[in-house]
Amino acid sequence: MQKDTTPAIGITVLLKDDTASILNLETDNSEFLSLAGVVNIEMKQIVTQVRESFSSSYYVGEGKLSEISNILLEQEIDVIIFNQPLKAGIKKNVEQYFEKKIKRSIQVLDRNELIMAIFALHARSSEAKLQVELAQLEYLLPRLTGKGASLSRLGASGILRGPGETKLEIDRRRIKKRISFLKSQLKEIETRRELYRKHREDRVLISLIGYTNSGKSTLINALTKGGAIVEDQVFATLSPVTRKVFLTDEHTALISDTVGFIRDIPAELFEAFKSTLEEIKYSDILIYIIDISERNWLEKFHVSRRIVDKITGSDKPSIIVFNKVDLVNENEETIYAKNEVPDSIFISALEKTGLDELKNKIKDVIQEKISKKN
């Protein structure tokens, strides 16, 4: 049964001197549409404006807001979403502008709220639900205008429902108390994870890393006995899955999936999931998964590397894997990829091709690591 969708207008604001963003506009808007689609938002139109600087009052120009007002009236749309994070004051200004201009309330969301809505939708484990609720509350707290604010306001349109929503009217004191409780619960989980790490110290741990929807879960299922959730959606899995992989009849290793990365991940989500992401710090080998069928795969690869560098703070042995080669022209795409990222491996996790080469590469890296220790 097809779910009802919420119509919305998207807004992307670019700076004239940000050449890279202007060149990647089409790809960026495509990702914006994908994010919205996960939570059943149908983006009727994406309005783009290139400016010298962001408006301190509305982020976008007032003339562009007037243009958007006409679209909202003509199409009877009540939701607009900015493809950038907004300060609380700007968001409030935009909402008040539309109330005066078109005489009705318009829900204004930003990129951070959209991503958190997706995390809330896909949070299945108790830990993931705690992490998402913590991120939602920490995002909400500085945006409260006074007592009596309700978390249910975030889900007024049915878009931002999730573990952090409640029907109760809450105030800052109660939010802070809940945040403190959530942090204590996550601390206990982190302590248990530390104990688990000590039990596996003699095992080689491999972490799969990559942009969201690059095929990490499909690969972990292909290399092991399965168990990871596979969906053609961003952030389909939020909880790490660790499985044993047989490299040879005598040699095994532990391989772990990680939360998929994305450009400009909200700081609240990054902090909430930090303990989960820090599993990367304790890995012996990092395997970067790149979706070669994505036009801007190189930029997404750089996003992943920047996030890993922020977490680990040091170099670790790594293997670069291009996935989904079954979706591209091998002569064109793979040659370009080999030139950009030498010594990489090409696979199709879905069709289970190239996996033996990957296993052999893992064995070589493990042997090199052992040799350096000795």
Number of strands: 10
Number of domains: 3
**Reported CATH architecture of the largest domain:** 3-Layer(aba) Sandwich
- The outline comes out as globular
N-to-C terminal Cα separation, in Å?
A: 60 Å
Explain what you see.
The chain has 13 helices and ten strands. By secondary structure, the protein is of the alpha/beta class. The chain folds into three domains: 6-109, GTPase HflX, N-terminal domain (Rossmann fold); 114-184, no CATH class; 200-373, P-loop containing nucleotide triphosphate hydrolases (Rossmann fold). α4 (88-102) links the parallel β3 (79-82) and β4 (107-109). It is globular.
Structure keywords:
374 residues; alpha/beta; Rossmann fold; 3 domains; six-stranded mixed sheet; four-stranded parallel sheet
Helices and strands, with pairings:
Blueprint: E1 6-15, H1 19-23, H2 25-38, E2 41-51, H3 62-75, E3 79-82, H4 88-102, E4 107-109, H5 111-122, H6 126-140, H7 172-199, E5 205-210, H8 216-223, E6 242-246, E7 252-256, H9 267-272, H10 274-277, E8 285-291, H11 297-312, E9 318-323, H12 330-340, E10 345-346, H13 355-373
Parallel strand pairs: 1-2, 1-3, 3-4, 5-7, 5-8, 8-9, 9-10
Antiparallel strand pairs: 6-7
Helix pairs in contact: 2-5, 3-4, 5-6, 6-7
Summarize this entry quickly.
The protein contains 13 helices and 10 strands.
